[in-house]
Amino acid sequence: MKIYLDNCCFNRPFDDQKQLRIKLETEAKLKIQEDIRFGSHQLVWSKR
Description:
The chain is of the alpha+beta class. The chain has helices at 7-11, 20-37, and strands at 2-4, 42-44.
């Protein structure tokens, strides 16, 4: 599966993790990143 992550997503782990929504988004981003590293998904980006 090809996945596009916007720039805000990459900064999410550095945001205040006290808010539940931020924490869940961080966990989801890290899981997706792990899947990309192990070849389950492919990271794609725009050509700007």
